[in-house]
Design goal:
Layout lengths: L4 H10 L11 E11 L6 E2 L2 H8 L5 E3 L7 E3 L4 E15 L6 H6 L6 E18 L5 H7 L10 H4 L8 H7 L4 H10 L3 E3 L2 E3 L3 H18 L6 E2 H8 L5 H11 E6 L2 E6 L1 H13 L5 E2 H11 L15 E4 L6 E4 L9 H11 L3 E2 H8 L9 H8 E6 L2 E6 L5
Parallel strand pairs: 1-6, 2-6
Antiparallel strand pairs: 3-4, 4-5, 5-6, 7-8, 9-11, 10-11, 12-14, 13-14, 15-17, 16-17
Length: about 400
């Protein structure tokens, strides 16, 4: 039965509340016959995300069955967690808030509302790092070995379009497209591909030999001549792709030129030398490396951050390949794998291998405090695991 004003006033009196201190309007709530938790889910949004929806843009939930769901806007990724609340949340269609009632002086004195549903929890969003490791893994299933590759002629290799990657990778569209640039992926016949390393080195070698034979400056390599000279050896789009991967494109006097990235070229050649050896005597490696890079380039060990490690404890000192992209994506697993390689690390050595784990505004120091224990060894601060490594 619907309450009358007299019943409302009697209830206020029993509760020892002074009607003069309250708004004159009373909401009388009743549960609808079919009230339940229903099909409703509550999602808490920060103002920026709310504005995106209000402007008509969409938010997408991404993840396969065995992955924890993330929510993505156009350029950010959020982890989704269920937050329980001790106050029951009621869904009341057409419910008026005190501000709306105040503004609406003519509103009647009792509003009868039906509760359509209720909830004891809501989804809470937390900004998180996009999960991009899988992107490289998918593209590495079938790296591109060049136009003559027999594998590409068969129809069985894994092909991924932008749409495929958006449905498989837990990251926003902008983060995925940026990462494709970072890993030097290229689009071949509508599919994203990564060049197989030996083929990439073959292309790079063609370009550096041409630069050498033409005595060009490394900061001014003309695209047009490269395509004319090398177009008979490899597809022109591959020549341009390698120039884009290892150089910066610019236009001078209407002509397209590339300024080659010395550090990136030196790094790739070091990887080529190191990947066939388990360990390499450091001084021998440095000698061979300097001889292997194009004329006019200087090799430096700091070009190898996140690619190779120098073992200063061995006699003589050695260097070995350790690529940051081969390490696990989750924080604890990353530290476990690093501490299983070396028991103790200096901050300088470990930084390139954990830098990418830092969340927004988080420092390497904060990560080390959380996952490692520090001590002094011969006057140098070193870090080891907080837990035993099996």
């Amino acid at each position: 039965a619907m309450r009358s004003r007299a019943e409302v006033d009697a209830t206020l009196q029993t509760a020892k509340l002074n009607p003069a201190e309250l708004l004159p309007v009373a909401h009388c709530l009743s549960f609808a016959p079919q009230t339940g938790t229903g099909e409703c889910c509550l999602l808490q949004l920060e103002p920026g995300l709310c504005a995106e929806l209000e402007e008509g843009r969409s938010l997408v939930i991404r993840g396969e069955k065995d992955e924890q769901a993330v929510l993505c806007s156009k350029d950010k990724t959020y982890a989704m967690k269920i937050a329980d609340t001790s106050n029951m949340l009621l869904f009341i269609p057409g419910c008026k808030t005190p501000e709306q009632l105040n503004a609406d002086q003519a509103s009647c004195d009792i509003i009868h509302s039906q509760i359509a549903g209720f909830s004891n929890n809501y989804w809470e969003l937390r900004r998180c790092r996009p999960k991009l490791k899988k992107l490289r893994k998918l593209l590495m299933e079938d790296p591109y070995e060049g136009p003559d590759s027999q594998k590409d002629k068969s129809l069985t290799f894994s092909k991924y379009t932008t749409e495929d990657l958006l449905s498989l990778i837990q990251a926003s569209e902008e983060e995925i497209l940026h990462q494709l640039q970072v890993i030097d992926a290229c689009k071949i016949e509508g599919y994203w591909r990564i060049l197989e390393f030996d083929y990439e080195m073959k292309l790079l070698n063609h370009v550096t030999q041409l630069i050498d034979s033409e005595s060009w400056s490394l900061s001014k390599v003309p695209l047009c001549t490269c395509l004319e000279e090398l177009g008979s050896l490899e597809p022109k789009e591959m020549i341009e792709h390698i120039l884009l991967s290892y150089g910066r494109k610019y236009i001078d006097d209407g002509e397209v030129y590339f300024e080659m990235h010395e550090d990136k070229i030196c790094r790739a050649i070091a990887q080529m030398l190191l990947q066939n050896a388990v360990k390499f005597n450091l001084s021998e490696f440095q000698e061979v490396w300097q001889q292997s890079v194009p004329e006019g380039m200087t090799t430096r060990l700091d070009q190898l951050k996140g690619l190779a490690l120098v073992d200063k404890s061995s006699r003589p000192e050695t260097i070995f390949l350790l690529k940051v992209e081969d390490l696990p994506e989750s924080n604890q697993e990353r530290f476990n794998s690093l501490f299983s390689i070396w028991e103790k690390w200096t901050e300088v050595d470990i930084t390139p291998y954990i830098q990418d784990l830092c969340a927004e505004k988080q420092t390497v120091g904060a990560l080390l405090t959380k996952y490692a224990r520090s001590s002094m060894q011969n006057g140098v601060k070193v870090y080891n695991s907080r837990r035993p490594i099996s």
